[in-house]
Fold this sequence. Notes:
Blueprint: H1 5-32, H2 35-79, H3 83-109, H4 118-146, H5 153-180
Helix pairs in contact: 2-3, 2-5, 3-4, 3-5, 4-5
Amino acid sequence: MKLSLKHQLSAYFYGRRHAVLIAFVSILIVVWIPHPLCAQESKKDSQLQTIAFKLFQEKENLQILRSQVVEKNNTAAIFDEQPLSYYSLMDSIDRIYILCGYEYEILEIAPKLKKAFKPKYYQRRSKRLLQTIDGITTEQNTIDMLFKETQNRSIINLVDQTKKSIQSILSLMEYGVKILEPETD
């Protein structure tokens, strides 16, 4: 029994539609169902990248602030105006800069890791970030104690700028901890 061309084409396209439908449903199952999980991971990764970038900016702001302190220190040394205060502030800024730089690099790497390593890595980084926050807070308290009774207006301005930068860094790191913590059901 020979089918007409019309019937042959009809059977061919019916089979094609069926195959296309199966392929479409398969793709839908493979792509769409895990999509919310992937979206959540990519959202977390993009948030970490944003925090890393902002932390980098704050780190650069600290570098600029440090150069201002060095400039003021050089001027103070010429006029014998408390150069020791500037050295103390420079040391504090250097310590915060180092801590901030280390965490920036860590947060920048996190989204690039393989999915299997992320939960443990995020947990360790969260703990490390909390330790860094404690270190920066200690440094902030040291700055507060050292410059509590300072009358020099230029030092006070630099200390205020440093405190603003520290607060920004601390809020970014606290947000990073919040992102890195595992979600509870």
